[in-house]
Fold:
Amino acid sequence: MINVAVLGYGTIGAGVVQVLQTNADSIEQKAGDKIVVKHILDLRDFPGDPNQDLVVHDYKIIEEDEDVNIVVECMGGVEPAHTFVKTALLQGRSVATSNKELVAKYGAELIGIAKEKKCNFLFEASVGGGIPIIRPLTQCLTADVIEEISGILNGTTNYMLTKMEEEGCDFDEVLKEAQEKGYAELHPEADIEGYDACRKIAILTSLAYGKQLDFEDIHTEGITGISAEDFLYARKMKKCIKLLGKSWTDGRGHLYAMVCPMLIDDHHPLAGVKDVFNAIFVHGNMVDDTMFYGRGAGKLPTASAVAADVVDCVKHMGTHIKMIWEPDKLELSDFGGFERKYFVRMGEEVSLEEIEKAFGPVSVIEVENVKEKAFVTGVMKESGYHKAADKFDNIRSMIRIDE
Ligand code: HSE
Structure:
């Protein structure tokens, strides 16, 4: 029998307990052993909950219980999650977590400890919730050199952008609705400013290249500047607007990463990913294009991935599943040097001549009832775009075009 301690009995922690208990028989068959939840750590009590007697308030009880084999961390945030997880791994206990902040910051360190202690630190649910993406990257695609990862990595913002696109709503209106439906948090900055997607693309990129990509190094923009009018132009260009977490190589030894809203063609595989769904598009130099799609958040989809990690920990008890993520820093190339096209909107008082003098030849885009100058630049460096844009004080928005 395998004893599990679950840290955090919020949405995901409760989901993991539910998955392990509901599917106990089928999980036992697949794991080859019976898995039992022995402790649940939470500051709160849960009177009336069927698992109320398992709740403890002090991590020491779990630390000192020699019968605990696996720790599931669903507390979120860096501390005290990091201290508890590190302690468990140093004791030789495997850990499964859904915590992207923890993994993005300490993934290399915690994998290193797991390796040394012949146990496992698994985190399939930390990116894309229920979507299998960590195992594909670290197991199925290891024969490839990864040339691009482009992900819709945040369900809240994808829900908001889908609403804006389909119903013509403006940002504030759709944020309020997302909050009422419980998708966006009361303090939604991590989602709408792109910080959540930033941690997720940092994790995927670190795994793709086997080194530590610090999320602070990734240029990150959220969706707060996107308006209903942007979607009118997008439709005219047969494109849609998605918040993408991207990392890619340019074939000349440069690696780039960024999180920002981008215009992608209607026929791009990511264009059909709507509402709270997530998807990750991965291009390898041998396998070509692959895509992984599903629910990137939510109680049971996320818990399903955590519980599957628990099964893997049981299947590999006493052995370490090799995962390469060294602490050496993964250096990104200067973002200003990358070349692409830009969609720009500015006040109508500027002449086309002035625009082209600054940006070079542009393609003007017009939509009904919007009086302004809107255009797509030619291919230019990010630094060149900003140099040109600095000549104007009436730029209303700029969205990068992903081609
Ligand atoms: N806030 C995240 C999202 C939750 O909306 O995708 C899952 O990480």
